[in-house]
Amino acid sequence: MNDRVVAAFDFDGTITTSDSFRAFMLDAAGNAGFVLAALRCLPWLAGIAPGWADRGRTKARFLYAALGPVRREALEAAAQRFVDTRLPGLLRPEMLARIREHQALGHEVVLVSASPSVYLRKWAPSVGIGTVLASELEWRDGVYTGRLAGRNCWGPEKVARLRAWWGERAPATLYAYGDSRGDREMAQLANHAWIRGESGLPPLVATGGFGAPA
């Protein structure tokens, strides 16, 4: 019998109160560096909402505009500082409690986020999350290239990442937690979905039994 239960959590706006990438870039680049990068990338930033600018490429371009060809060890150090000092103030206590509830029932909790994995992978173990599916930065000889490695983990890509992760062991029950348009496809895949502001948190079960998600 397949009794695997997976709880997939978006990060920004779901576990946090605001956009963590913006907070990370402010922390890593400083106010002046952040503003200069925003000005350089303004045409692409403005193009995200109407849909003519790619979210992932714009995010990668902004990071490069702010930090340039930063070495991996330097960005890793900035990520650790952010996780230790600034990120805790952005976390929602009620969502951390929800993660613990899933874990107490033996559910597998996975983080699925469009934000860069460089700081998410440093934070996730602190709350017992062992799997992070997120946007990856591209490195060449230990230096950031200004591009993403692979697709931006947003919208349909979240479903693709989840399917690739569980492979032939699809869960009997999938919970999905999100807050925006980028989480819709993941919510549609789930047996129990929650989008912030639309409904109350779903009841939890200890085992599966709904059949593998399509």
Automatic annotation (TrEMBL):
GO annotation terms (biological process): L-serine biosynthetic process
Keyword Hydrolase: yes
Superkingdom of origin: Bacteria
Cellular component annotations (GO), alphabetically ordered: cytoplasm
One term of GO molecular function: magnesium ion binding
Keyword annotations: Hydrolase
InterPro entries: HAD-like_SerB, HAD-like_sf, HAD_hydro_SerB1, HAD_sf
Database matches in CDD domains: HAD_PGPPase
Pfam families: HAD
Keyword Repeat in annotation: no
Protein name: HAD family hydrolase
